[in-house]
Amino acid sequence: MVKEAFKYSNGKTKRELVERALQKFVANRKRKDVRDLIGTVEIDPNYDYKKLRTEQN
Fold first, then answer.
1. What is the dihedral of CA 35, 39, 40, 44, to 10 degrees?
2. Is residue 21 a contact partner of residue 5, using CB atoms and an 8 Å limit?
3. For residue 53, what pLDDT is reported?
4. N or C: the chain end with fewer CB closer than 10 Å?
5. Torsion-angle region of 11 (φ positive above 0: left; ψ -120 to 50: alpha; else: beta)
6. For residue 57, what pLDDT is reported?
């Protein structure tokens, strides 16, 4: 698995590879789960996401 990880990384050492993997792991764990936000955000009933998509070029 380490050889495969080196294919997708520009890391030079195993230590570098492990540090980057741990940084990604911690960042992913810190990220809030969108399901935890249910009921905490009020959505504007007039919000039209489809219109916004067509306005962007």
1. 110
2. yes
3. 85
4. C
5. beta
6. 53
The pLDDT value recorded for residue 15 is 95
User: Can you tell me the distance from the alpha carbon of 18 to that of 5, in angstroms, rounded to the nearest whole number?
Assistant: 10
Distance between CA atoms of 16 and 42, rounded to whole angstroms? 43
The Cα–Cα gap between 12 and 22 comes to 16
pLDDT digits (tens, 9 = 90+) for 1-57: 888 988 988 889 999 999 999 999 999 888 888 888 888 888 888 888 888 888 765
Phi, psi of 33, rounded to the nearest 5 degrees: -80, 125
Q: Which of 43, 42, 1 is nearest to 18 (CA)?
A: 1
